[in-house]
Predict the structure.
Amino acid sequence: MTSATARKMNIPRAHKNRTVGDWTIMVLLIIGGLVMLFPFIVLLLNAFKTTADYNASGPLAWPHEFSLDGLIKFWTRVNYPEKLWNSIWTSGLVAVLAVILSMFNAFALGIGRVKGRRWIVLLIMLANMLPQEAMLYPLYIMFKEIGLYNSPWAIVIIFTVIQSAFGTYLLSSVYGTFPKAILEAATIDGASRWTIFKDIVFPISKPTLSVMLVFFFIWTWNEYMIPMAFLIDNSTQTIPIAVSSLTGDRLMDVTTTAAASLISIVPTLIFYLIFQRTLSRGITSGAVK
C-alpha cells in the first residue's frame, strides 16, 4: 500500500515526525544518564590504575598501564570470598523472610480485616519513618541480652523486621483494594482462608512480591551502619564494612578503594540484571492493575 493510498483511506502512519520538544526531552535524558554514569566511569578509570599512575595523572585521566593490583590487594586483604558469602547469605535470607512476613501481615490487615487495622497500619507507617540511629542503642541492649550480638542472625532479624514493615504497609494498601466479590464467591464455595490466600491472592500478587524481593535484597546489601555496629569479628562482616576498612584515619589508597567499590557493586549489578525482566514486569503489572 502506497503512502498516497494510506492518506486517502485515513490510515494513521506508524511513525510520526518528532517535534522539537521530543528531541529536547531525549537530549535531557541522555545528559541525565551521563551525569548518573559519571561516578561509575570515574570508578572504572581509577580501579585499574597503579598508585603512581593516579598520583601523576589524576582521577580523570585514562590509565597509562592496566593494573589489577588494587583488586588483588583488596581481595587478599579482606578475604573477599568470605565477605561476599556473608553479604549474599544475609541479603538473600532477609529478602525472602521479609517478603513472606509482609505477605502474611498484609493479608491479615488488608483482607482479614483485623480489629484496629487503621491504627496498626498507622503505627507501621510511623515505624518506617524512624531513623536507624534511634534504634541502635535499644537494639544493642536487646541483642546483647539474648546472646546474638556479633552474630549474622542479629542482622537478619533486624532487617527482616525493618524491610517487612515497609512491605506490610505497601501490600496492605494493595490487598485492601482486592475485589470483595471474588473473596465472597470463594467463601461461599467453601474455600478456607488458607485456600483463598494460596490459590487466589498469592498468584495475583506475585509481580508485586518479586519487585519487593529485588529491592529488599539490594537495600540490605547496601546497609552499613547497623552491620558495622553489630558485626565485630572480621569473619562475620559484610562487603560494605570491608570496603570502609580500607580508609584509615590519615591515609587512603585511592586505587584500592576504587577497585574495592567496583567489585562490591558487581554482585548487586548481576543480581539486578538477572531479575530485570521480573522487575519491569512486576512494575508494569502493578501499574495496569
Observations:
- The radius of gyration is 25 Å.
- The chain has a mean pLDDT of 81.
- The first helix runs from residue 3 to 8.
